[in-house]
Amino acid sequence: MPPVLSPVVSFAGPHVSSNALDQLRTALQTHLGPRRFQNWFGASSRLKLDGASLTLCVQSPYLVKWIQKQFEGELLRIAAPIVGPDVTLTYEVGADVSLTPLPEDAETSSAPQPSLSRRTVAGPAPQSVHGRSKRMYSLSEFVVGEANALAMTGVQQFITEPASVSPLYLHGGVGNGKTHLLEGLRARLRKECPQLQVLLLTAEHFCNYFTQALSARTLPSFRTKFRNVDLLLVDDVDFLDGKKGFQEEFLHTLKQFEQEGRSVAVSANRHPRLLSNTSDELVSRFLSGLVCRIESPDDAMRREIVQRRATRLKAKFSTEALDHVANRFTGNVRELEGAVNVLSTWSQMTRSRVTLQVSRKLLGRLERDCVRLIRVGDIETAVCEFFGVETESLRSSSRKQSLSQPRMLAMYLSRKLTQSAYSEIGAHFGGRNHSTVMSAERKIADQLAASQTIRIASETWTLQDLLQTLEDRIKAG
Ligand SMILES: Nc1ncnc2c1ncn2[C@@H]1O[C@H](COP(=O)(O)OP(=O)(O)OP(=O)(O)O)[C@@H](O)[C@H]1O
């Protein structure tokens, strides 16, 4: 809760004295605390007073919006006893206000940093194994298509009006751009509004800081440091799943941000409802903002990503080679980029253009070396976990719908994601024959065509979403 405002200065009457502005600044500082005051009303903006009319000069329209939301009410309340009850507030943009630039924010160590004293903190280790600084992602480099359009819109909304979508929850499979979006978001915020204190860190780092504060008995200062940031971005919040103590602390942080009108964006590898070992309270907080799913990129997006990366690496690809790479690595963007790296390195080494033939040969080797084989057992495990059923039950002869539907889905996915024959799949799921598997495959295809929905616990899923979620989890291992 913000401190209760005491009328530090008495009403100055209609003739505002020249030091009214000083009184107002002092009162603001007392109310906001020196750090926030300095940040928003120090060198970065200028207050002018003419009679009862107060003007705040700031550098960008973005800042006006932000200050209106965050401080206008407080500012007028504080100003009233000093300037008079008729006080009005207007804004001036583009005045000669000097903005104090933020220090470079990248943490230079991969180890969790015990101190949060920087204005912004990059969470995951931003160094490569070679010790060079990691490239920071930007939103302009992010290829947008149907698979991630909602997430990108959510991010843009967070930039213009964070509170309207907070907490923003981005989720999707491995390597499909969640970290890229959060880093891009931070970079854009810093550019648009350098005063904003934006903290980006992984959930794992959050836990490390918390553990350290606990053992050093510095919990109050740990919490105060979080209180000082305007926007909190947390990558990989699924890390908290099953970690009760950390969840409580994170929930406490979210609540505090909410109470103070500050905003949070997070990313995770799955939908909040699939965080099965996360408290209901935290899940419902995640659900209360904007939840956006990021899917694997479609053909056109993959092609665009390959093209851009090849250009960035100054490698020449034939059109057929570009298509070949884009069609070969469909699972996630990280793998796609890895493939382009291999071909670009070859191109530089040989000073030659990457042709279809070269691409086939090199990627054929790469795939043999790295493609993870999915087994029917992996699919079974994922389906059982998702539906909360035991393996024995799934394999049993029971025809209860609560078992037959997940069993049919597991069979359908086994056909789709493995090379196993109908008879092998049938044998795996309780010694059933091949025609049972064929019939399961047909039924699920029909249900998909009919856009059927399925109810799991209290949640209704479209079959398509459910299958995609299961696929992502299986592929992620
Ligand atoms: N739509 C996209 N456009 C351009 N590059 C992308 C896109 N999606 C992902 N990438 C790139 O793919 C790589 C992996 O992305 P990123 O690290 O953001 O994935 P992630 O979803 O956070 O994965 P993880 O779940 O493993 O943390 C990065 O190099 C990123 O720049």
TrEMBL record:
Residue segments, region Disordered: 101-133
Keyword line: ATP-binding, Cytoplasm, DNA replication, DNA-binding, Lipid-binding, Nucleotide-binding
Chromosomal replication initiator DnaA C-terminal domain span: 375-444
Biased composition (Polar residues): 108-118
SMART domains: Bac_DnaA_C
Signal peptide (residue range): none
GO molecular function, one term: ATP binding
Subcellular location: Cytoplasm
Subunit structure: Oligomerizes as a right-handed, spiral filament on DNA at oriC.
Name of the protein: Chromosomal replication initiator protein DnaA
Higher taxonomy: Bacteria, Pseudomonadati, Planctomycetota, Planctomycetia, Planctomycetales
